[in-house]
Amino acid sequence: MESKYQKVKDALKEAILSGKYPIDQKLPTETELMERFNVSRYTVRRAVGDLETEHFIYRIQGGGMFVQDWHKDWSNESDSKMIGVVTTHIADYIFPQIIYGIDQVISDNGYSLLLGNTHNNHEKERKSLINMLNTKVAGLIIEPTQSALPNPNMDLYQEIMDDQIPTLFINANYGATYPQLKFPFVTTADVDAERKLIDYLFGLGHESIIGVFQVDDIQGVHRMDGFVQAYQQHPDISYKSNLIMYQSGDALDKITHRIETYLKDEHRPTAIACYNDQLAIRVLAFVKQLGLRVPEDISIVGFDNYQMSEYMSPALTTLNHEKEQMGQAAGKMIVDLLNHKPVESITYDPQLIVRKSATAPQKPTA
Length: 366
What we know:
Blueprint: H1 4-17, H2 30-37, H3 41-53, E1 57-60, E2 64-67, E3 82-87, H4 95-108, E4 112-117, H5 122-134, E5 139-142, H6 154-162, E6 167-170, E7 185-188, H7 190-204, E8 209-214, H8 218-232, E9 242-246, H9 252-263, E10 271-274, H10 277-289, E11 299-301, E12 318-319, H11 323-338, E13 346-348, E14 352-353
Parallel strand pairs: 3-4, 3-5, 5-6, 6-7, 7-13, 8-9, 8-10, 10-11
Antiparallel strand pairs: 1-2, 12-14
Helix pairs in contact: 1-3, 2-3, 4-11, 7-8
C-alpha cells in the first residue's frame, strides 16, 4: 500500500509536470498541504524534501516553496545508448514493422530502444515524453499525437529543441504539424497518394464515393485533402462527393451508422475510400452484414497496405506504406544526427496496389 508521504510527493510532482504549477510559482504552504492531504508536518516535509533533491522544488528563506526549473537537468550530456521511440500505438497495425525497422539499424550501431505508447492521447504523450527525458535518452523518434490539433505538450517539445536532443518525426512533417519545431521527418505523400487512389476509382467508372477520414491526425487531414482535390479536378461530378469525418476516440458504430445512412439512399454511392486499411477491413465486414457484396455492390479501398489486407475476402485494394523501410530510414537518420551528420527529410510516394475489393460499378437493372 502506498505511503502517505509517497501520495503527497506523487500528487505534487504530477501537478508540477502537468503545468498546474508553472516554473517559479509559489507552492502551497506546509500547513495548507497538511490540511489538503490530511497528513502530519513530518510527512509533508519528507515529500517536499525528496522533490527538492530531485530539482522540482526550491526554497526561499522566509518566502516559501517554489517550482524549480525541472527541465534544466534534462540534457544529452551523457553516454546514454538508449533511443526513445514514441508512437501512437506499438503492438498493432503497421507499427510493429516500423519499430522493427528502427531496431534493425540502431542495434547494429550499439543502441537500444525505449518504447512509449501514447494511444493517440495527449496526456499519455506527455507522460511518455517525460519518461524519455528522465531516462536521458540519447535521441528521440516521435510520431506526434493527434497531430492535426493544438498540442498542450509544446513546452516539452520546446525543451527538447532547446536542449538540442537529436529528434525526428515519423508519419508527420514539422511544416504541416508544428511549424516552430524544425525536426527532420520521415513520412508519406498522403495528399498525392489519396488523389491517385480516387482517380483510380474514377477510372473504373465511380462518380459517387464516400470518403471516411480521421481528422485529428495530420495524415487523415492530408488524405482527405487528396480526396477533395481529386473531385476538384472533375467539377462535373464534384457534387457527388460524400465526406465523413471522425476522430480517433469515436466509436466504430458511430462511423458505420453514418455510412449506412448513405447506403440506404436510393442513389447510394458506389465506392468507399477509407482513411486506412484498419478501418477499411471493419467497413468491409459491416457492409457485408447489410447484405451488400464487395465489390459487386460497393467497392472499398484503404491505405497503408496492412499485412492482413491481402488476405481479406476480397483482398483489399490499397496504397502502400513503406513501414519497415520507414523504420530503417528513421533509424539511420537518428544515428546520423547523433554523429552530427547532416540529414534530409524523406517523403515516400505510396504505390497503388490493385486487388479485388474495387471494380467497375454495376449498372442498375430494370
